[in-house]
Amino acid sequence: MSAAKTLHDEHEGRISVIRAIAIDAKAVARSEDNEETIPTNDENAEKAVYAKAFQAWAEGKVEGTAEDIFESVQEILEI
Fold first, then answer.
1. The model's pTM
2. Which of 19, 23, 35, 59 has its CA 20 to 30 A from that of 50?
């Protein structure tokens, strides 16, 4: 497997986990067709996503660096 494929798969896995965290925290909602998520613009929910994402990272449930986690949360929240 190429390095690019590995990085892509790692990124997709990270996005999947953080998206689930964001939905659970009600920071994003699923669109009507369930294919995309829409930010709710709830600042408290967004803070919870950052906290839970970094907790998952600390527990080894999400791979990457701290910067990867931060950027992935921003991508999910569309900041």
1. 0.88
2. 35
